[in-house]
Amino acid sequence: MNSTYNLRLNELNQMTLQLQSELHSALKEAQDASYAKTRFLARMSHEMRTPLTAVIGLSELMLNSGEIHGDSADKLDKIHIAGMTLLGIVNDILDISKIESDRFELHPIEYDTSSLINDIISLNTTRMNEKPIEFTLSIDKNLPGRLFGDNLRVKQVFNNLLSNAFKYTDSGTIKWDISFEQDGDNIWLISNIKDSGKGIKAEDIPKLFQDYMRVDTSANRETEGTGLGLSITKRLVSRMYGTISVASEYGNGSVFSVRILQKIISPIPIGKQTADNLMSNNYTKTKRTQSAGLIRTDLSYAHILVVDDMQTNLDIVKGMLMPYGIRVSCALSGSEAIDMIRAENPRYDVIFMDHMMPGIDGVETVRIIREEIDTDYAQNIPIIALTANAIAGTEQMFLASGFQAYISKPVDIMLLDSVLRKWVRKKSPTKHFIYPNLCDNIPALNI
Ligand code: ADP
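A: This is the predicted complex of the input protein with adenosine-5'-diphosphate.
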């Protein structure tokens, strides 16, 4: 009896061990697959963003040059808009994959409430360009002036909802109502976006927030979309402890209501004047004409080294720096950049460094500059990552690797401007030479 019992016990032990080992290999396989997927996403992000950088960057440079007019300018504008649309799709696919693989994190910072609202409005009102839509905004003037939260993700939530309102409304009205409720040290930011557009059928409403789900596809045949926007929005909202709901009448429009939790940094309200300014804005300017109208500081005393293995990218950055009068040198590889920093002739004020390059990549190049060139200059020169890799955690990785800041490609002109103000602008420039804007060591593409 005892021996049969022992035999069974042994068998059970064997089976448990085998199961454990199978579970272990399955876990390892899943981890390897998830690692491979993440690597694939990083590569895909890079591979798709690189040609998009050229399409968006070059078309923007040409449009802003003032040299293209009439029909050609219209066509170029369409190329630019198509590039931006494709970039939005790449970003959405990356976002949903990051969220699925749990690599998604919020990065809260202190932000200015009215600037955030202003940015969202400027981006979205470009979408109503050719449609007879009346856009109105209503903002509670007591909204706290400074908040703490992931401002980029907050923008993404409202951008997704507003862009849908503009997409699915051919004519009529769109009203954005922003209010809040205080909750201790936090506020519930409350947004209602009401459009008089196509509306959604009652039976489709439960499907709206599913991945890749587009509804009423025959009526919306002409409208571009991936069906990812609302599912990303819902997940972002729940990460901010919030809720999203929709009320709609087919043929008569929809209201998307959102509540998200943000911490109060300054209870001082944005005030009547700011609220009135935002509400009475001229909503016809496009983002591009805004960036075209950007007043550039004179940075002609600065000399920047741009490192990128692609000549086109060098030309785009160079073209973007041109209005500042900045002198630009270029390096086509990490090792060339290291030699130029080692030589200290000339000394640069800032380095813009690409990430993925053949040979020594950007991160390794920065490590060598920081650790192996034994000079104060090499250890302290500000280095800004310029990369097409937009996978989660990228910014932290750069900051932990000796970089001072990170700009993703395609480069947003307004973001570049704020980085230049922070890292290049001196308090009181001593020299005011206007240098010709050429990579002084590499001939430019003729664009
Ligand atoms: P996409 O717009 O890329 O298709 P979304 O996830 O943002 O994807 O939206 C899913 C679907 O919900 C859309 O395809 C559209 O049918 C519907 N929808 C979203 N917003 C609105 C709106 N404001 N009015 C009418 N339909 C909408």
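The pocket of adenosine-5'-diphosphate is lined by residues 164-165, 168, 195, 197-200, 208, 214-216, 220, 225-231, 254 (CB under 6 Å). The two ends are 90 Å apart (CA to CA).
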